[in-house]
Design brief:
heterodimer, A: mainly alpha, 79% helix, B: alpha/beta, Rossmann fold, six-stranded mixed β-sheet, 11 helices, globular, binds adenosine-5'-triphosphate, binds magnesium ion, membrane (chain A), transmembrane (chain A), ABC transporter permease subunit (chain A)
């Protein structure tokens, strides 16, 4: 418990935490609402179907889908950066040394880090939900739509959002510990989240086995889960797998990333 | 015994960086761990804290295996410079550490006071001077009133005033009965504040003794005119160039003898042996 409190205190007061969350909220608003709103009012593309889609995507009722669709790629990348920085920086700052000599077992120290990151990620998803909801209500009121608040169905996309966020967090923690530093961890992580999987998907169009593989890679699983719970119209969202399958893969990744990271942290000399 | 090691060894590849070190630290003493750069001091200390697993041999810290919560909670340490979050204030850094050590906030204020950082407690760690950073490291080590304080080169990088402050702090703690294991590559520092010394060179503990033993007999250096006459007058003196070396503690009697014989005494001072000379004497290897 002390370890979680300690980590939460230092993550909460870390400017990078709020900068990254802030950047994500601004991105989410801009791409989820601002551009759609502008397109709706005087955009060039005014075909009926597309207009219906724009309206639907901005309805307060559909805010859950708006939250989840951003997470497979860009939101995930930001969460991964946060986790990789939080874990990797400790090597350069010497704070891992301070942490591991403080008293708690290494497993507890790791649990503290992961637990505190989990709290931060829940805050991030909750803030995204609230900010998106606020934006949706604003747009609906401005446009004079008949709107209603999201019902209990919103639980599913939000749970999916948390699972996707957990996977990217685990990925970041894993990279931070494997590379023992922030720079390489962030570089490799961003590369993977934004470039590598997309390239593989491109190759997959030509090679069957690669295509099957891309569906279940970390970003692919996240994209499929987002697609399965109603997310659409954002980069990285896919519709190749069932929701349950995608969710199971994500759970597998979380276990693998955090398990491996913890094992390394416990076993490896800290010099 | 607060710390004992038994043939503690750490190899990196073929090289034994710490080679069968058997040392012991007793309750209430300030133990100086003395050795030149690269001797293996930090690596030994890392093994005592469980940061590094020994290749072979064993160690006990306060009767416990190194690195276990039982051992760590009774030890406060500062290894190779302080490790803190640069964006947090000194006080917040200590609060984070206090959570980990399971001690309450009042200890944070007490520790800040002990190292004289109350005035700068709200400043960001990043903006601290080297001396302040080092003192915050000691404050963190003191949290929770550990039975053993391990300080790895705590005066590293400090200016003379900062070094003196740090030594005063260690002496003050020792006066309260605090057991301290302090590593250093400065012979003078160890002589000044330690009770017992372990000397490590190239991974091997070449000597473990009291400071008096380490210091050896006092050698006086004498500069006088004419020097040959002084050499004849003082029994057992060695002529080295234009000065005399003599194993003697009573400088007063010596000067009187010379002055009565009309020898001009220009300088008489005790010779400080260098670390190299101590090594030479203890190991026969320079
Ligand atoms: N992880 C490592 N891998 C390989 N060699 C290492 C490692 N850590 C330390 N060494 C080597 O072990 C030797 C002893 O290092 P150590 O840091 O223990 O010395 P030290 O006595 O603390 O020196 P200093 O006074 O410079 O701090 C050095 O030569 C160093 O290069
Ligand atoms: Mg060292």
């Amino acid at each position: 418990m002390g370890s979680v409190k300690a980590e939460l205190l230092r993550l909460w007061k870390w400017p990078a935490t709020w900068v990254l969350i802030g950047v994500w909220l601004v991105m989410s608003l801009t791409f989820g609402y601002l551009f759609n709103y502008l397109a709706l009012n005087g955009g060039t593309n005014t075909r009926d179907l597309s207009q219906q889609q724009l309206i639907s995507s901005m309805q307060p009722e559909n805010v859950g889908a708006a939250v989840v669709r951003g997470l497979p790629m860009f939101g995930g990348a930001i969460i991964l950066v946060l986790a990789a920085l939080a874990v990797g920086s400790g090597y350069g700052w010497g704070t891992w040394k301070t942490t591991l000599t403080a008293g708690p077992r290494r497993v507890s120290a790791m649990a503290g880090t992961v637990g505190a990151l989990a709290v931060i990620v829940v805050v991030l998803v909750a803030l995204t939900f609230l900010v998106d909801l606020g934006a949706a209500i604003t747009v609906a009121s401005l446009e004079g739509w008949d709107w209603s608040l999201p019902g209990t169905a919103v639980v599913e996309p939000l749970a999916a959002s948390l699972l996707i966020a957990a996977m990217w967090t685990g990925f970041g923690v894993f990279l931070g510990i494997v590379t023992k530093g922030p720079a390489l961890a962030v570089g490799l992580g961003l590369m993977w989240a934004i470039v590598t999987e997309n390239l593989l998907r491109g190759v997959g169009a030509l090679l069957g086995p690669v295509e099957s593989l891309t569906k279940v890679l970390p970003g692919g699983s996240a994209g499929n889960l987002a697609g399965a719970v109603g997310g659409s119209g954002a980069p990285g969202v896919l519709n190749d797998l069932g929701g349950t399958t995608a969710a199971l893969f994500l759970v597998g990744y979380v276990v693998f990333f955090l398990g491996t990271a913890t094992l390394l942290k416990v076993r490896r000399d800290l010099v | 015994m607060i710390v004992t090691t038994e043939k503690l060894t750490k190899r990196y590849g073929d090289r034994a960086v710490v080679d069968e070190v058997s040392l012991s630290v007793r309750r209430g003493e300030v133990y100086g761990f003395l050795g030149p750069n690269g001797a293996g001091k930090t690596t030994t200390i890392r093994m005592l804290l469980g940061l590094v697993q020994p290749t072979s041999g064993s160690a006990r810290v306060l009767g416990e295996a190194p690195g276990t919560p039982k051992a760590l909670l009774k030890v406060g340490s500062l290894i190779e410079g302080p490790g803190f979050y640069p964006y947090l204030s000194g006080r917040d850094n200590l609060r984070v550490h206090a959570h980990r050590r399971g001690v309450d906030r009042t200890h944070v204020e007490a520790a800040l006071e002990q190292v004289d950082l109350v005035g700068a407690a709200n400043e960001k760690f990043r903006r601290y001077s080297l001396g302040m950073k080092q003192r915050l490291g000691v404050a963190a080590a003191l949290l929770g009133q550990p039975e053993l304080l391990i300080l790895d080169e705590p005066t590293n990088g400090l200016d003379p005033a900062g070094m003196a402050d740090m030594r005063d702090l260690v002496r003050a703690l020792a006066a309260q009965g605090q057991t301290v294991l302090l590593s250093s590559h400065l012979l003078g520092e160890v002589e000044e504040i330690c009770d017992r010394v372990g000397v490590i060179s190239q991974g091997r503990l070449v000597a473990e003794s009291t400071v008096e033993q380490l210091r050896g007999d006092t050698v006086l250096l004498i500069r006088a005119d004419p020097i040959e006459k002084a050499h004849v007058l003082i029994e057992g003196s060695e002529l080295r160039g234009d000065v005399l070396h003599v194993r003697e503690t009573d400088a007063g009697a010596l000067i009187r003898t010379l002055v009565h014989a009309d020898v001009d005494v220009r300088e008489v001072r005790p010779l400080r042996r260098t670390l190299e000379e101590v090594f030479f004497e203890m190991t026969g290897v320079a």
